Amino acid sequence: MLKHHNYALGLTWAIILFVVPLPFIQTLSVGLPADYSDEFQAIYFGAIAYAWMLVAIYLSTRPKWLDRLIGLPDMYVIHGIISIAAIYLIYLHQSETESMGWIKTTGNWAYWLLLGLLGYSLIFMAGWLTSRLTFLNTIKTWLEPLFKHEVSIWIHRLNLVATVLVFIHVILINYVTAIKPFMFWFYLYSAFALITYGWSTYQNWVGTTRASLTTNTEIADNVRELDIQPNTKLNLLPGDYVFISFPTMKGLKEGHPFSIVNSPTNSDTIKLAIRGDGDFTRSLAQVPTGSQVRITGGYGRYQQFLNERPEFSSLVIIAGGIGVVPLLSIISSHPDDRIHFFYTAHRKADLLYSEQLRQWQKRPNFKMSQQVGRFTDSEIIRQLPENWQTESLFLIGGPGKMMRHWKRVLYRHGASSGQMYSEEFNW
Q1: Domain range summary for the chain, segments of one domain joined by +
Q2: pTM given for the model
Q3: Which of 21, 37, 143, 218 could form a disulfide with 48 if both were Cys (CB 3.0 to 4.6 A apart)?
Q4: Which one of 1.10.10, 1.10.4030, 1.20.120, 2.60.40 gives the CATH number of domain 4-206?
Q5: Helix, strand or coil for residue 82?
Q6: Which stretch is the leader sequence (predicted)?
Q7: What is the DSSP string of 98-136?
């Protein structure tokens, strides 16, 4: 049986790849003049590329309905892959068509701008790729002092300029603008992308929830705990993350995602535990209490994943390092559930919230295995609940390699992909 999450992700891919470009292809196939028959395929490539570019813009607005359905990490993977595919199709389009004047100029400008942005994004904006390719991660680490968080976001926004250039490129082609059904869909898609992006930008600067930073303390080496008090209640689920920014602080004005530690159902305060890995997170130590905070959320699928599978009777959580944070929120919000919690860190000092964990061990249905250094495969497999292949769900949090490893191990021992869920913070 297809599990809900896998089905939704596959359906999302199918709609983006095939359904979205279909009106362009269909109207072009009927309306293109026969004089351009040798360029039909290249023209189709260009139309598909433009459709995918607009989809990428829409996904960059982080639509919450789609996040709850497939998760923002998968959404960003789709965003990256279709952007790469669109650039490849633009290359094919450009190499197999002839044009002149401003039609050629705008097309060339868009292509070279997108190609430069692709190279930049593969290093700085595609964590799903750099986490798997060591040489790209090394280049990223080397260049990060020059290209900080805010700079990267503004460079990435040049994709909008490239899209406008493609828009101009199309409306300058007389034999294309003469195809009225195509232009209807062309303007409709373009307007939709423009309106959704504009509304998202407005919401991020005007409509986001205002909040105040009430505490900012160091709770472990290079880990800070922030307590944030929103002015209005946010729609948060356990295990969610939020995007926060500090509008009055230099270098911290663009939103950055962080997971909540506490149970949002039991408190109006949002508690975050943040490790100083980049320029944004390292700068948090300088933010004074009382500072204004902009906050957007929640995002995430940990709790949604559990809600979709009520037939499972126990929960196994595997956490490593700072990746434990959203899973602590889940544990806090499920006091009556059967939970087996595996938690590791590189050093004893990196094991967070020890006192809270000791309190949870008083629960009759809570079992914890904690140690410094990773668990072996057999250590976890032999401690799993009885009948775990059919009765347990698995939530995994930590470094990307660790999460992928435990998914492979569990799958080899009988778990299905629909029993396991993790979220990689890889952007």
Answers
A1: 4-206, 210-300, 303-422
A2: 0.88
A3: 21
A4: 1.20.120
A5: helix
A6: none
A7: ---HHHHHHHHHHHHHHHHHHHHHHHHT-HHHHTT-HHH
